[in-house]
Inverse folding.
């Protein structure tokens, strides 16, 4: 649940093919995200998963898997 939702959100926000959004995909290097994308992504994740992501957590989210782990930490009740 978390993984698929994160992949869909990232693909939509960054306008990339869903197939490119693998767990190991790096947001900046592989998916061409920039700092504005990171802020928009954090806001989308917070809204979708009903969590608050701290700035330092956002800075540590380099890969799609990092995002999944962050959401999992805030929402252990959700299925990965």
């Amino acid at each position: 649940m978390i993984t698929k939702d994160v992949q869909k959100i990232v693909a939509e926000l960054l306008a990339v093919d869903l197939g490119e959004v693998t767990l190991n995909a790096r947001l900046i290097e592989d998916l061409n995200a920039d700092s504005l994308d990171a802020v928009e992504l954090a806001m989308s994740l917070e809204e979708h998963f009903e969590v608050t992501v701290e700035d330092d957590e956002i800075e540590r989210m380099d890969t799609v898997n990092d995002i999944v782990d962050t959401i999992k930490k805030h929402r252990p009740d959700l299925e990965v």
Summary: The two ends are 5 Å apart (CA to CA). The helical segments are 2-14, 35-49, 55-60, 64-74. The chain has a mean pLDDT of 95.
